[in-house]
Specification:
- The complex is a heterodimer of chains A (387) and B (373).
- Chain A is an alpha+beta fold.
- Chain A is built from 15 helices and eight strands.
- Chain A has a single domain, classed as Cytochrome-c3 Hydrogenase, chain B (Orthogonal Bundle).
- In chain A, the strands form three sheets. A three-stranded antiparallel sheet of chain A has the order 1-2-3. Chain A has a three-stranded antiparallel sheet with strand order 6-7-8.
- In chain A, strand 6 and strand 7 form a beta hairpin.
- In chain A, helix 3 packs antiparallel against helix 4 and helix 4 runs antiparallel to helix 5.
- Chain B has 15 helices and no strands.
- Chain B is globular and about 60 Å long.
- With 373 residues, chain B is mainly alpha-helical.
- The relative contact order of chain B is 0.14.
- At the A-B interface, helix 5, helix 6, helix 8 and helix 14 of A face helix 7, helix 11 and helix 15 of B.
Chain lengths: 387, 373
Amino acid sequence: MTVRIRTLDELLTPPAAGSSELSTQEYFVNMGPQHPIAHGSLRLVIRLDGETVKEVIPVPGFVHRGIEKMCEKITPRQVIHLTDRLDYFSAIMNNWGVAKLVEKAAGIETNGRIETIRTIMAELQRIQSHMLWWGVLGMDLGAFTAFLYAFRDREIISELFEETIGARLTMNYVRPGGVMFDIFPDFPAKVRKLLGYLGPIMDEYDTLLSGNVILQERLRNIGVLDPKRAVALGCTGPVLRGSGVPMDLRKTAPYGRYGDVEFNVAIGTMGDCWDRYYVRMEEIRQSLRIIEQLVDGIPEGPVNVIKASARITIPEGTYYDQIETARGILGIMLVSDGKSPNPYRIHFRSPNFNNMWAVTAIAPGWRIADIISIQSSLDLVIPEIDR
Amino acid sequence: MTYLTLAATQGAFKTVTVSERTAQAFADGSWILALVYILAAVGALGALVTVVGLVLIYAERKIAAHFQCRLGPMRVGWHGILQTVADAIKLLLKEDVIPERADKAMHLLAPFLSMMATVMILGVLPYSPILQIVDLNIGVLYVTAISGFGVMGILLGGWSSNNKWSMVGAMRAGAQIISYEISATLALLVVVLFSGSMSLAEIVQSQDAGWWVWRAHGVGLVAFIIFVIAVTAEINRTPFDIPEGESELAAGFHTEYSGLRFSFFFLAEFINMFVVSAMAITLFLGGWMPFHIGTGGAFNGAMDLIPPVLWFFGKTSAVVFLIMWFRWTFPRLRVDQLMYLEWKVLLPIGFVNLFAAAVVVLYNLYPFPIIVP
């Protein structure tokens, strides 16, 4: 198969008139970078024929901050706070990704308490992230109430984070060899209360939005991403699982306490927007299950196995590790020269970057309004794409 | 004032419109009285537009807030009651931006067309037996024609803005409003068939023995549901707010409008909501008629004590609340789904319903007598 590579300029040139008898004039619109659907600053150049989408070209890069370059000037411990700024709805999972890599590279052993706290926090964040996505999807499709319901319930988790970590968005919590702060004494009780609240809330969400006939019409059979295409595009996370590929690092390569707990991986059957929607809804329920199993038996022990000021030396070599964030697999490659405490090079394989290109594959042929459904179901966080 | 309140029990309201009074005054040679009537009518219309606009915008914000577990505006005045006034002043003071490449004349004209279409309908609505500015013998036709005229403002506004999103929004609005006008008209014709008149005042009078929504043997109920769905689409409210489609088209046809001109579109939308709700209750829910169960009795007597104008605004508020409820509950439909709903679902049902209504009326298949004025 040969691929003819076309430049953006070439694509934007209007096609010759009258190429077909029934052809109408095609036109381009810019969806973003300043557009209500561009949550962040993603520019989508859309070639349209009336309401029908002919082609979508994502143009990322508006929030490029050079995070990877910045990482070369700081120690791995300082990298943690930059990972908060990648996908800020999976901050703890991003932190954990770097911590896991550094621990692997430097040979640091953690204890059960650290891993349990990390797992609980990561799952809480996954729930929080998916709730935000749910609300935003509702808002994108015109159901504004869903947005505020999601924020109301998300707030409870945020407060829990605030109480433990002191931050609500940029956590900077998990660090190599431990976590920043110990949990407070009545944390398990508060989490249990939260679980008791969120369980019935999920049914309320289903009543409000999932069961709505208009929402089903807007999501079912729209934007079908077949499994082969999804794998070829490098999609991960709920986008890949929505297409029916059972790929979840928490199951396939368990880290933290995921190997000890019982949970199921939700996968879709068709790969349409609805499957991606419901996979995430089910993931919230599964995350609740994971937390429920862990919260009652948090082992005792220190929450840091190395001193916060200890110098971490990473032997010379190239290291790679990956972690399942709320949006897919975050892969981190670290090259160390063995002399400097700073990494020689860090690269983040961000899940959103690959998931974003799915829109080019699945949007053509659908309507303008379907771009909204597809974009929402991909759940993109733009700063992670641009880094 | 006993006429207003107690005559309801007699089942014989006499309608006197302002235009009739004016004509009478002219005939009597009392020019000053006629002038007073005309000025009062114009002033009342202006006041109604302002008050309905302010109240509905405030109500929408408060209702939305309480649906969404929050308080809504609370700072300006008691429970934020002056928030809308503050917003209106803000919009008045804002710069009126006209895009450089816009068709200036059309761009300036569009909001006024949109606004005019709604205000012109307010003049024919029967608010109470004595509160109606003019009662046209083709009132229903007039309302349909003028509300169809409103789409011109939207089309012009979107087209003249010279913005692709606005253009898409305007074209969607055009297609949508014209399509749903058909269903609304079919539903409306059912009532015209039953009441035997196109005058709005007479349609209200014809519901003396029972409102058409249930007196017409199910046909009326179906027509009412079709009418409510169709008018919700006609005034571009969620789930049919595709022309504005905030998340897809930025703001649709009014993307390029700011300041006062934007507020005209905005106000027109809210007045429109009032107008279609008023039409729905005039046609199906007895207009200003009080709610009666059977004939006579203490309950009916108590109902009659409430003045007709309160009945009118109360019922209208109920329908307005219903439309707001839709907005804060439903997601938005897609364009082709919207067209499917109209042409393949509502339109066939509407035609069958109209046919059934014709059969019912022709063979006199219902037990209630019709009052033919």
